[in-house]
Amino acid sequence: MPLVDTPMDESTPWLVKALQERCPASEGGLLRDGAAGNEAVWCGPLPAFESWYAELESTLDQTLGRRLAHAAAESEEQRWSRAAPLPRAWFKQQAKRVAVVNADWDQRGLGQLGLLEEDGGALTLLVANRAQTAIAAGMANAAWECIREQRYRFQWSDRGAGETLVELTPDPRSIPAPSAVAPDWTDHVGEMMEDERYFDCARHEADGLWTVEGQRSFLLTRDLLLRFESLVLPHLASTERSTDSRTEWCGIEDPDKLIFWDGAAEASRRQFLAGGQLVLIASADHWLGVGRQYLAREGLGRVTEAAEVDGHGGVRLRLAAAFHPALVVGRLLGCWERAEGRPGRATWTTDARGHEITLQSRREIAE
After folding, report:
1. Burial class for 256, CB neighbours closer than 10 Å (0-12, 13-18, 19+)
2. Is 304 in contact with 318 (CB distance < 8 Å)?
3. For 158-195, how does the pLDDT look when each residue is reduced to its tens digit (9 = 90+)?
4. Cα 26 to Cα 178: distance, rounded to the nearest angstrom
């Protein structure tokens, strides 16, 4: 009999089920983490995030690892403050608390936390199968503070082979818990719905590590990204905004935020184009499918309306919600440039209905 190639489902059913229950899809195209107060999460390949992060550092001409680590620490502390209390027990309380943290990190694809050594008050943690090393360090510090109910200072080093070492020393200062953060734009998440999600083909490879189609993948909260942005902004005061930016952000007046959003969108555009994905657009309606494929599956948003604005591929898109406007605009701009084969520009605005994004040629085209 002839051999017929058939697609093989290599997903791990229990992991897919757990992720589907934890992060349901919504009409607005966001994924909400039910284990973290319904915080919006981006579920995507780790290499895509690492590429975006590297492009952001290049665009802003800054090293951002320390700020990313502190954003991760604040976000993780906030996440555990919203979760069920960690176990209290007379016997092996620390081990039981570490097990709870690791079970959560396993689903999020963020590695596994362990105590390597302790000498007096100082100690060394190991994050095995870590995702991004600065995020792993910040999260490990915050998790251990919750486990021990004590403040620590931390520094980290990457040991290679997917391992991050985090050195903690007790911090006697009284440091208040991080305050909540909220996006300064309007989202309409809508009802939960059944829809294709990126992790529907997730395969569990090891504790704290899962892949989709061979790519390491993970969950990143919007809370972490917003905290990262707020920690970066004060360091952009001496940076001049480009006079030839591809993006316009209507209603954003803060010059530092404009620079960060420009950089985040440009990094997102470059990351998408480097991925080599194919985008074919024959009419404005095709943008709804592009939105499902490259935004909604990963929890970044959903294109609900699309209309042509000129005879050269220009289009006006409507989204009810966006994980972060800069990431969404950058990715859509990358899609537009892939489909049209020339540089584009984008204009974003928000109103009571959500987000409106206009994509057009970067240079005027003669009629």
Report:
1. middle
2. yes
3. 988 899 999 999 998 888 888 889 898 989 888 887 88
4. 28
65 CB burial (10 A radius; 0-12, 13-18, 19+)? middle
Q: What is the pLDDT of residues 19-54, one digit of tens each?
A: 999 999 999 999 999 998 899 999 999 999 999 999
Question: What is the C-alpha separation between 121 and 240, in angstroms, rounded?
Answer: 45
How does DSSP classify residue 234? G
* pTM confidence score: 0.94
- Give alpha helix (H) positions in the chain: 13-22, 46-60, 65-82, 93-108, 133-148, 222-232, 255-275, 286-294, 325-340
End-to-end CA distance of the chain: 60
Q: How far is CA 58 from the centre of its chain?
A: 18
Gap between the Cα atoms of 22 and 228, Å rounded: 24
Both tokens of 57, joined, read: 């550092």
Rounded to whole angstroms, how far apart are CA atoms 219 and 45?
Answer: 9
- Give me the residue label for tokens 């409106």: 356
Contact (Cβ atoms closer than 8 angstroms) between residue 113 and residue 258 = no
